[in-house]
Amino acid sequence: MDQVALGKRIKAARERVGMTQEDLAAAVDYSVDHVSVVERGVKPPKLEKLVAIANVLNVGTDELLQDSLNAATMLRATELSERLKTLSPDGQRKVMNVLEALITEFQ
């Protein structure tokens, strides 16, 4: 498991919902220092704390652990596909054109 990447994702999710480290620490019964240690990737959270963090931040554990999960790429593709459906037909076409160009560039 990439502890640093996990910590960065937790921090990004925390900031997205407008929480401070103090808020998160209180919500999951951690010390602020321990939240800092987790976010810096020094030490990963235990499983039950990871689930608590994900619930408080309203993200899936799969999103937080995406480097460690074989199915994460397919899950992300499915999520993006669902978001694509919310766009207008013109928006969908533009996104598909960009994706096609990116895929061609990386092949």
TrEMBL record:
<dbReference type="Pfam" id="PF01381">
    <property type="entry name" value="HTH_3"/>
</dbReference>
<keyword id="KW-0238">DNA-binding</keyword>
<dbReference type="GO" id="GO:0003677">
    <property type="term" value="F:DNA binding"/>
</dbReference>
<protein>
    <submittedName>
        <fullName>Helix-turn-helix transcriptional regulator</fullName>
    </submittedName>
</protein>
<feature type="domain" description="HTH cro/C1-type">
    <location>
        <begin position="10"/>
        <end position="64"/>
    </location>
</feature>
<dbReference type="InterPro" id="IPR001387">
    <property type="entry name" value="Cro/C1-type_HTH"/>
</dbReference>
<dbReference type="InterPro" id="IPR010982">
    <property type="entry name" value="Lambda_DNA-bd_dom_sf"/>
</dbReference>
